[in-house]
Amino acid sequence: MNRGFGIGNVFGIRIRVDWSWLVIFGLVTWNLGTAFGGMHPQWGKPAIWGLSAFASLLLFVSVLAHELAHSLFARSRGIPVKSITLFLFGGVSSIEKEPGSPAAEFFMAILGPVTSLVIGAVILMVTGAVAGPLHAISSEPATAAQALGPFATMLLWLGSVNLILGFFNLVPGFPLDGGRVLRSVIWAVTGDFRKATRYASWSGRAIGLLLIFMGISMVFGARLPFFGTGVGGLWLAFIGWFLHSAAVQGYRQVVVHDILEGVPASDIAMSPPPTVPASATVSELVHDYIMKSDDHAFAVSDGSGFVGLVTLGDVRKLARGEWDGKRVQDVMTPSAELVSVDAGEDAAEAMTKLAKTEFRQLPVLQGGTIVGLLRRRDIVKWLQLHSESSV
Question: What amino acid positions are annotated as catalytic residues?
Fold first, then answer.
């Protein structure tokens, strides 16, 4: 989720938009414009498409409110929340770690769907106040919708889709909110977080496969209640595939965390990297260190201790003609700007830090002295040696 752009902060939480969001925004706007145009051709194209785009934006404001409910509860329990990202399938909160108890998991999960359901109910109440009793609309929806004005039409759609969003997220398939609710219940009963995740993941995979089967059936002519028939089934199958994949990946992450938990970062990290003097030229770095070893990262010392890290990537940023005039201290990343881990720090936490940084390795420090580098490939090798087939 590193692609895209930021659009601001809400309650101190950074809000980002992934580029894939533009795809779903365009699809929703197009579908709404086609539907509104069919029901209300008298509005004119500028009004129809303007209303459709505005309704699409309000939908994603609702999705943002859904994710904020998760995030604000997490922060109230001391769990850091880095950001919320809107993307192809709606939104995702970057919550730094799992809840510490089944109760916290339950409430953090349930608050999202409840928020969507409340938003949907309130909007439909406003729609009823504007357009008249909703039972008249539900009894003859096609005829009633044609009699609604632009504002009431948009509210009716927005309220209904929020209810659908809330109920869909209550489906008990991990990692949907309903799947997390299921996990919290199993966790409370068994006392085993990993086992609870495994069972909830099985449910998510089964529901994903069911959605794939339903979607393909629709493409081949089957008419399903509520979903209908036709090529729209491809979208349903795509959602099923995403849910299945996310369920598998979610369980694997828990397994990996369990394997690394309690393992000191220094046990996994590569032995101390070669040390380069801060005063050496980049040309000396290349010819005396990089070309004579397989290492891509080097500790930098000023004679009194570790002051930074220089990598092959830092050298590549320079033109060949600058190598003799630039010193290592000019191109290195200073230690103050590096994300580092303590030698005794839990490897699971170290892996989380590594996943959030733009660097490919983290210095492992002991009393201010670098004792190793923790790289992604070191973690992969450790997992290959110590993991069992669990998925």
Answer: 67
